[in-house]
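Chains adopt folds. We examine one example:
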Amino acid sequence: MVRINAILPEDTLVKIDAIVKEKKKSRSSFLREAAEKLIDEYQRQKAEEMKRERIKRAIETQDKLKKKSGKWSGVSEVRKWRELHK
């Protein structure tokens, strides 16, 4: 592990100390857990943003295709194909 120095507001440190005393943990372990949770949350949010962006692009692509195809109906084409191949 690597040792770091951090500057925290005194009231934050008081709150951390109260929690670690109650949980019988060290400041270091508390801060490690907090950092890991923050990293996990950041990664989850980033993945969610990427998912939303992919969905947005897919919808835009569908809208462009719909506009380009005019009155052509994929559903009607599938129905015709099914009727022909009964």
In short: The mean pLDDT is 94. The helical segments are 10-23, 27-69, 74-84. Residues 47 and 53 are 10 Å apart (CA to CA).
